[in-house]
């Protein structure tokens, strides 16, 4: 049995919802200070930054919620660096659980990747670890724990890295850059649903019932008329796929997980799986109130509000905004990978699951559980069954089709410079078929095809959403040596075995 104190929430009285920093009104003890607004921290090459994960409280309508935070804010500080910089994060764990700092999507040195067992021991409560983090790529990345993320991440342990490109003109100029982390939190009778000694909600992952934008359930953004805003979107939810829209304005998708797309495009919606990022530019031409929506087939949520008011923007970038750029540099950089696109896959993976101890009387037949024809599970439609499913009785699997091996038995080995084409099949006949955001550490990849259809607008990725029944081919550039993890980014699936290691020498 793990020793993590996984059920601390219920021991506190009167805790309930979380709130905007502006609503924090209680005076916290030293152990649980109130949450403040997330700062932007600009660091230069060689800088050291102290980052401490602590227990905090948030309040709403007089109720208190016990959460976790980096440097006291949810999200943690946005750490802004210039591409190519190396910084040191002096990380201290003052939470109630061993943890690590994983810098998601950053192609850093393996020993600072924050994966227990692969690159370091968990940072025990009260201890510190120095992470040296290099940022070779421009764009938006993020940091979060890599120990029991099912518990620690939804409680508030997430923050963005904003990596400013060296190349001038990499992005067109905008009036505001807004990192925006969308997620959710599961509340039961006003309290944050507790976590047990092993991950629960292991069937579908833990869906929250309260939508959050930058940690707030009533996120607002002030914009001047005429401003172009660049949103750096990150999905920090455990399992919820977001489908984001802002009715009344045009969305220009310019970037993805790692830098720019080959071509900028107008989009109506942004489909964002857990851990994925999208960079989108929006011109707010006229005054008004614009909802940030999450649109599913059954329901539309408003997860924030953009208030466009006041004096007109001093500088107008409307002309640049109206142009859809073709990034020839991106296309040219990808040319050396193109000869690999059409050859057979080197590796083949199948996503599936098995169960133990959950048979009989549960209606767990494949037909029933796979009844939904949707390729994405937008909601927890089997809440009781999901809650009862734990990392102890569900085994989510990534199976190497060629060898039949799964999990830690896969142990692939590659050489630096290998371009590895991997076919990933999400088996719709598995006992519970659903989407999985598959994440590779330490490397970047291209999504080449989905169900045989070529992706003609590429962007470097570190996570790909494999929808139910789909076959997705990716090309992984194995450029960063070390022992790395690949896994489903739904923490309850990761805890239930949906991972493997690969080594790059
Ligand atoms: Cu999964």
Short précis:
It contains six helices and 33 strands. The protein has helices at residues 149-152, 318-322, 328-334, 366-369, 383-388, 491-495; strands at residues 40-42, 48-60, 63-70, 78-82, 86-94, 102-104, 128-134, 139-144, 159-164, 176-185, 187-188, 191-192, 210-213, 219-223, 227-235, 242-245, 251-256, 259-267, 270-272, 277-284, 288-295, 300-308, 347-355, 394-400, 412-414, 418-426, 436-440, 444-450, 453-454, 463-466, 471-478, 482-488, 499-504.
Provide a descriptive summary of the structure in words.
The chain has 505 residues and is mainly beta. The chain has three domains: 162 residues, Cupredoxins -  blue copper proteins (Immunoglobulin-like); 158 residues, Immunoglobulin-like (Sandwich); 166 residues, Cupredoxins -  blue copper proteins (Immunoglobulin-like), CATH 2.60.40. It is built from six helices and 33 strands. The longest helix has 7 residues. The two termini are 35 Å apart. The N terminus is likely disordered. The structure holds copper (II) ion (CU). Copper (II) ion binds next to loops.
